[in-house]
Every structure is written in C-alpha cells, then in structure tokens.
Design brief:
Layout: H1 4-13, E1 17-21, E2 31-33, E3 43-46, H2 59-64, E4 69-72, H3 77-82, E5 87-91, H4 94-105, E6 114-119, H5 124-137, E7 142-145, E8 149-152, E9 155-158, H6 166-178, E10 183-187, H7 190-194, E11 205-208, H8 216-219, H9 222-234, E12 241-245, H10 251-254, E13 261-266, E14 273-281, E15 284-289, E16 292-296, H11 301-316, H12 321-329, E17 339-342, E18 348-352, H13 357-370, E19 377-381, H14 390-402, E20 405-408, H15 418-426, E21 436-437, H16 441-451, E22 457-461, E23 468-471, E24 474-477, H17 480-488
Parallel strand pairs: 2-3, 3-4, 4-5, 6-10, 6-11, 7-10, 11-12, 12-13, 13-14, 18-22, 19-20, 19-22, 20-21
Antiparallel strand pairs: 1-5, 7-8, 8-9, 14-15, 15-16, 17-18, 23-24
Helix pairs in contact: 1-4, 4-6, 5-11, 11-12, 13-14, 14-15, 16-17
Amino acid sequence: MIVLHELIQRLASAGLVQQQLGHTTDIPIDHLANDSRKVGPGGLFVAVKGGQTDGHLFIEKTVLNGAIAIVCEAMPEQVRERFPGIAFVQVGDARAALAELAACFYDNPTRSLRLVGVTGTNGKTTTAFLLHHMLEAFGHKTGLLSTIEYRIGTEVMEASHTTPDVLDINRLFRRMVDEGCTAASMEVSSHALMQERVRGLTFEAGIFTNLTRDHLDYHGTMEAYRDAKKRLFDGLSPAAGAIYNADDPSGLPMVADTRARRLSYGRHEGADIRFEIRESRLDGLRLRLDGADRAFRLVGAFNAYNLAAAYAAGRSMGYAASDVLNALSEARPVPGRFEYLHVSRRRTVVVDYAHTPDALENILRAVREVMPVGARLWCLFGCGGDRDRDKRRIMGSIAEANADRVVVTSDNPRTEDPEVILNDIRRGMSRPADVLWVVDRREAIAIAAARSELGDVILIAGKGHEPYQVVGVQKYPFDDREEARKWFGP
C-alpha cells in the first residue's frame, strides 16, 4: 500500500504543489477517487472542476464518508477547520494532479509496457486494432483500449469511452502488467488530452492519423482541436517515435515541437514510408508499401493509410519490415468499420462508423471504388444530437454528391429533437425532395431494404459497432448490423 507522502512527492516533482496542511507523512492511502460517491475510509479525494459540477462542493461529504486526504485547487477553510486531522494538499491543476497520482498509485504500469497511442479524427480504432494484432503476432500478450472494446490478453470488456477516465486507464494498465501483458495499443482522444487523462503514461510511440472537422462543440475551433491532439506528441520522450501522416496538412505541425524521433508515412514523395494502392476490391487492398507488394484484408484508400501508420509504428519499434508486413497482411477488418454483411437477394450492405464529414466522404468513395458497374449506391445516415451542428449540413452535401440514393434518419439524437437534426442536414442539400427523410432508424433501414434493387450497395453509416441508440438520456438496444440482416434477409 502506498503512503500519502509518496504521492505528495510525485506532485511536488511535477511542480503542482502549492501548500500542504495537516498530517501528510506516513498515512496509508487505500484508494483514489475524483467522484465523491466512490470515496470510502482510507481514500484520497481529488476535487476537480468539471463542465457539469465542481468537486470542491463535495469535499465535506467525502470527509464524512471516510476520506483521509484531500487534493484541491482552492483550500476549503471551513472544512479544514472542522476536520483538523485531515490532510489537505492545494495544487495548481487538479486534473494534472489526478493523473500524476493515478500513475504513482498504480506504480507506473506503462513503464512496463510497449505502449503505442493513436490520435486523429478518423482511423484511430482501426489503427489501434492493427497494432494490437501486430504486437500479438510478435509474441506479446497485448492490451487494447479502443472505442469498441478494452482487452487484457484474451479478456474482452465493453468500452465506456474512446479513452477511459484517468483512474480507469491506470487501473486497466496495472491489470495488464499484473496479468502478463508486455505491450498495448490505445486510442487517445482530444478530450482525453485536454483533460490530462494520459498524463503520466509512457508511450513508446505516438501516431497521428489525420485531422478533419469533429468535436467543435467541445473545442470551439479547428486550431484548438489540432492543439489538443498535438499534446500527445509534445509529451513524447526523445526515445519514443512520433509517427505522422505526411499527406495531411496538420501532419508536420503536429510533430513540430516533439522531442521524439519523427517518422512520416504517405502516398507522395517526401514521406519516409510511402505506399501506393495497386488494387482496391471488396475483399481487400493490394498495396506497394515501403517497396514491397502485399495484399491486405482491409478495404478502401483510407485503410491504406491506417495500414501504413501501423507499419510505420512497427518499424519505429524495431521490428523487421517483412515481419511487420506478414503480421498486417493477416489482420482482419474491425467490427463496424467497412463491415461487409452477407445478405440475400444479391444486394450488398456495408456498415461503417463514419460520423464526420471526412469519414463519410471517404467511405462513400471507397464503396464506389469496389462496387459493380451499373449498381446504385445508397447512403443511409444521420447526425448525433448535442454535438457540432455545423457539420450536419456538410454531411448532407457529401451524401447527396456521392450517393445515388440517400436516406436521412436519426443517429443518436440524445436530448435534441430528431426533426431539428434532420432539418440541419437538409440545409446542405440542393435536392432535398429526392431524399427519403425517416426519423425512426429501424423504419429507415426497412424502407431502404424494400426500395433497393438487385445489385445495389447500401451503406449504413454513423453507428458502426454500437449496439445501442441514445434517445434522450437513455440507451436502447439497437444494432445496425442486426437490423440490416433482419430487413435485407430472406
């Protein structure tokens, strides 16, 4: 068990401590919490100011529940006077303090892992899965933190967030190490970077995939969004690898201030690792990657970038080119990412997670590349509620320009009126009368099944692997793949 003094030393070495009050030496700490409801006897509570509430308001409650130490940004004088036996540590940044405390409390688990983090707007999940597959192929028992699921070796857990809470991250990595994992891959979201959730982690490599419009409801501007992603690379050590997409305008700026070794990938001259698409079919890609011709099971030009990113990471980590290529050539498609469904009546259904303008355009173009000549391309999609409203009209315009038939429906409307979301999408279309507008997603899939013809290809975009739909504040069972099999089946 760790004692409070060790934790405070970690905060002091990070330059976060402003003052200490009370007995702060050899007190044993049983657990950490930043949620007052999870604090019990022997716990240390970190009061974080969040978007919805302020942890400082619950300090007294945590003390009454048994907390023996408090880390906070504003010293609660009245509470401190009432409970003189409690240790108080004032810090300049409670989120940063929580991250440092979590890494220290769980004994810095990522120092024992070959950890690769992937950030960017699109491609994070597929690249993280490719890395996981590659590291497993090299003999590592490997962990994974992704939008779809978390893995510790063969154990699979449902994912709560793209990047978990900082305490959960360190708890999961601790379990990985304790259960024999020697490597891991993880998605690193912009929210996690801004909220210091990956501070204190030791990355052997960081990957930048691309930057397109997303999460502006949170970040406000593309510049702020880019700068959030950049924090991953700014924090890498000189021994790490900074791997970036040379074809993306934000690629070079992303690694401009990194201390890590830079390694770029892309299609054009100047990239350290170049690739060329030789063939794109429904059953996979054939690439010339870093001078070698190989076939891969993933489909679409955007997946060529994901494969190149994973390959670059493998090379950065010291693995032989042929071994990396052999491993990646066996990697299977990721659930809900260009997932091809075998349905009857000679139609093709593709389910994909595309929920940003760039992702939707990429998947539509990828499907068009591999579909039969003369077939019609259907696009069924929606936009999430309580998120960036401006991207809705952009996605409407993209669907209209790239598909032959469009069905607009609900994604996860959350607390917004679904009709309002559909109207926002309608504003980006020049021919809205040609579009099918169906609020109910199940009904929309049924209508697409009834009206599509033999040979047509139907893209169902936006939710991918998700087995639920969020309406209001509730999650209801809903899986695009199950619905497609139901309505497109015999």
